[in-house]
Amino acid sequence: MDRLGRRRVLRGSHPDFVADFLFAPAQRAESVLRESEERFRAIFQQAGVGVAKVSLEGKVELANDKYCEVLGYTREDLLEKGTLEITYIGDLNQEITMRRQLLSGEIQSFSTEKRYTRKDGTIVWAKICKSLARDVNGRPKSLIAVVEDISDRKQAEAALKESEERFRNMADTAPVMIWVAGPDKLFTFFNKTWLDFTGRTGEETLRDGWLAGLHTDDRDRFLGGYSSAIDARQEFRSVFRLRRSDGEYRWVLCTGVPRMGPGGIFSGYIGSCVEITDQKLIEEELRASEVRLMAAQRLAKVGSWEREIDGEAIHWSEEMLRIIGLPADKAPSNLATFLSYVHPKDREKVFEIDVKISSCIAPVDTEYRIVRPNGEVCFVRSIVEAIRDDQGAPLRIAEAIQDITEQVTARELLRDSEEHLKNAERLAHVGHWQWDIRGNRISGSEEMYRIFGKPPDYIPSYEGFLEDLKPPDREEMERLIRDSLARKVGHSIEYQVALPNGDVRTISCVWEVLQNEEGLPARIFGTCQDITDSRRAQEESFARQKLESVGTLASGIAHDFNNLLGGVLAQAELALTECAARRFPEEELNSIQNVAIRGSEIVRQLMIYAGKETAVVGLVDVSRIVTEMFELLKVSLSKRAVLETDLARNLPAILANAAQVSQIVLNLVTNASDAIGERDGVIRVTTRCVKVAQDSPEGGLTDCDQVQLEVSDTGHGLPPEPKPRCSTRFHHEIRGPRPRARRRLRHRSRPRRDDPYCQRARQGRHVSSLATQCQDYGRRNQRSDARCRGDRKFISRRHSSGRGR
Known about the structure:
about 40% helix, 29 strands, 24 helices, five-stranded antiparallel β-sheet
């Protein structure tokens, strides 16, 4: 029947028909099988992977071309070898184990990656899959092996692994901290430098574990910037504090850049952290330094500006604008604008400096004036310099300006003051001098040279100065200078110098010793005043005063002598009467003798006062002298004055001239009487022994007992004009028989608020004198008058309300 179901009629001979009918199906089956085998062979040979049939003993029975290509053998070579023979020795155990499991039925197939040794000796990586083929009875028949060459992938993996290893080694040896984060923002890698810095392990640090070391004050700020940068796929920078392994937080600078994989796929971030603590400290110190610089410029009144050599823009400091008198928003934009604030007479000078500074190597220093917007003129000192590169080419111009208005004003005032000082010294005949001890240089003022009669170009010296002194004063001056250098104290002295023209002048000199930082004498500064005229006038005044005093005393002494003579006459008459009665008038004669002695004493004191009797130095009891002078003192007083005494007994003796001490007492009492005048008043004379310390105001006295003589009165006191001069110290020297045996009367005013007379009468005055006692005159006199305190010092004090001559 055909395809439509119709019966077909077979024609031909019967045997042929039967043969065709019997063998046709077999032929068709064989044809189909042949076609199938051909298709299998074509697929087998042209497959992209190597396929082979391997016996259960490991012999290759059938292999396609790819299999031979992968393993590097010809088909004939493979048919003679087993798979174990061409397996790399390092993978044999794995191959044997897997095949045993496959044959034992433990596994149905296996897949692995292994290496084969090719015929040329090279190694090839292959991925092999093996399965077990069974017969119809289910018994193992052969092995089917599929092989794929993966050498390129293995090489790429090895290269990648090597690259990662190189990256890790490089990262671990890098001096910076390196990190890697994934696209999920979690950290996947920290290098060894990071781990060493933080003191944490990799497991503790990965993902977000490292945040535990981030300073709490910086965490939110860092995470916000880090998250925003990752979301935007942008580079980021952040500065934060990270805890070091020792627990100290250190400043670090963290930077990160996005990582892009194949095809531009975002793979995460890679970044680094660098410790910048020292840089941070430097920046802070720089900021602090800038603040200090601004403060220093403000205090020193120094401003600055800077501009490029080819540019017009100028950078001004705050102090510079303050000097000009401009706010920051009105700073001059260029040099021309700045010159408009320079004084018109100084603009050309400033402009010329700006033009030539480019060719000058050294800075240029000048002074000019600035006129501020309010019209005020400011004097400035300017230092301009061209900043150059390594080749010496000018890059920019910098200028520092200091406000020297006060210095200029002070300089002018100093110039005027020096001129006034010169005039004052010239009018007062006072000069000043200075001796640099270390350099042995002496300098003096113009008036100093004039006083000594020296020309202006004269070079003074210590030796030349001593040569000008009179011989009696030269030794004393040398002694005082040595004492000043030894004890570092000043002195005062009056001496006479012989001028080149032969004139002899009297000079009053006072000096002090200035010390260096080590406390050693560095300089001696002093003044000299020509007091020749004043000394002559003073001597004349003293002479007139003595004459006046003698006249005052004459009337009182005449009255006393009249009384004495009356007593003498009375006693003489009694004596004559006694003689007439043939009795010896012893009592009357003794009375006459006493009266004569008393009269001679009055005459002697009067001659001493008049300077007609030679002074003799000896031990003197001040209280006794005042007692002996009491009657004479009462005679010299006014009728309204009352004389009182408070004299200490057993007073230590002093080394002095009794006549001169009497003269001092008489002068003080006479002055007190004149101060009282025609009013009722009291004059009180007191002696006592006191202790004066070395640091007392009575300079020059030692820490020992002193004899004090006080004369106070209740007179009308000083007028207001001379009161400021009451604190002035002055000296009066009475020369003895030898140059070294001198007594000084040193006066110094000081109020005595504890004195009853001063408390009762504020208009009175109080004068006291101190003299050092001399209890062992004989022993000290054997050494020298100086050691025996031959220079006896009397220190007088006056109230500011007192009056005296």
